[in-house]
Amino acid sequence: MTGIIRTSIDIFREFGGGYGRWILYFAALIYLLYALRGNEDENEMYREKRIIFIWTPLVITLLFFLPPFYILYSKVTDISTYYRILWLLPSEVTVCQAAVCLVEKAGKPVIKAAVAIAACALIILTGKYTYDSDIASRAENPYHLPQYVMDICDEIAPADGRYEVCAVFPPELVYYVRQYRTDIRLVYGREMVEPAWAGEGYNGVYNEMAAPVINMDSLLREARASERGPVKYYILGNEREIDRDPREAGLIPQAEIGGYTVYRDPEAEAGTEF
Amino acid sequence: MIIFKLISLIFWLGLIPFGIGLLVSLFLPEKEISILSVTVSGYMAYWSLFEITALPFLLLGKGVPVFDSLSAVFAVLSAMVSLSGYILRRGKLRGLIPDIRPVFPAILSFAVIAFILVMNTRTAFFDGDEAYYTGQALAAQQTGYLYYRSPYTGTWAYFDSRHALAMLPVWEAFIGKMSGLHAAVINHTVMSFVMIPLSMGAAALAAGTVLKKRSSLCIFTALYGAALVFSRMSIYNRGTFLITRTSQGKAAAAGFFMTLLLWLIFISMEQYRENRTFPLLLMLSGPAVGLFSSLALLLCMMFLFTAFALYAILKKSLRPLIYAGLSCVPQFLYLLLYMGAGS
User: What is the ipTM of this complex?
Assistant: First the structure.
């Protein structure tokens, strides 16, 4: 039981990125408890508002830390999503509402502005700029896909819309291919590459492509035997360590794009029909 | 030509949901009707209508390319519903023209929204789940199959019952088909212009239950925008999901629907007080959250029942809980389908 409570506390802390935003949120809750009061005629309405913005979130927070609730959740769905219960807490709405209530109560316009700026500063200081993260990059096109991956796909895609081709892409590029074209089939995709799913399946082609040094003979043997083939194209990084030149293995270089070389296997058929 | 694509987007992402919202406004209290509530509730109903229309195609059309048929049926249905909204509520249109005075707070709030939209347009976020969601949307758009080919490899796959009922990618593919734009462009660029303003609108509606002055709501919107922009102290929270995974159902559920739920519950409690026994607005919202995420559907039911349980204690009556149960009839049906689809 204490292990579950400790896990819940860890999730709670990680969700908020520490405790700064949580302190702000619960301070706002306490303030709204005071601010959401009306006269006798309005009491019913204000009680409803307190139920929605204060009491329901507090009950949900309590449930979140209760071990029996954790156990029930794990039986209903994937426990790795437990943090999503915290999505039900309207923390941003509550903090901003409380801040604006304070602004409304302030007297002169200068003080109103000062309160609003202070609230904004607190929000910024307890947060982190989203557009500066390690997963953010400048978009090269409206697809928000790496342009060189799109160029590789356009290079190998069948000209005739009725057919599709099969290709082997490096692990780092498989995320993008099927977001751009459905006429390119992959021997392996994200299901083999995702770290969280490691060990959940076997794919000989992926094993060769992910090896420290690619063994060309093994790669071609696995790919030519793959049920998902016939594999017509191999995309290999120019900096990638390969035991011998793919051309010696019979592959024909077709194009060089974005640091990758596209090789064609002359033994593969033209394509398979949709 | 790009101008035709733009006109098409304005039609399917602007005029159609707004018309549907005019029809939904029949169920809203008079004082809650505004251009914001009409737009937001219109989108909620638009998505609900899509989920209800698409489910039979999904479940009965297994292994058959049904997307084109689904698109044709939904296009006609949504256009008819929207048109009836414009016809029945044409007298309301003039009253919906917004008054943006005082100007400075309005400019501030629009500037924050514009900043987020510009930044989302020029920033590509890497997320592994996009291989799934955009992959499924593109597969629907280009091959016609719904959840029958692996989005990762393109090979034939088993029917993905866990995710298939949450058909936001298919709706995105529909918008792509109607506008002539690639599904990845819809997901990674266009959806920001839908989801971010709608989410901030839902937050403003929720805040509007407490804050009554227009200037206060504008300041709220500006602060809320700042909270979203500075939300990456964690990869798990709603703001991060909304900004970095805008087109995904779980981001829509977290950023849009769970915020809108606060307003929907408030309206429903008000209507309950006025002895309206049928929670139409909440019932209408059920299929929309199912479109986004099956888990979010469960979580929203949890919030709803908790709120109405507390309301029942306040009222010293079980009737609010029955009211909440009625409002979740679409959700219960969805859950039955979910369990049946998985077996």
Answer: 0.92
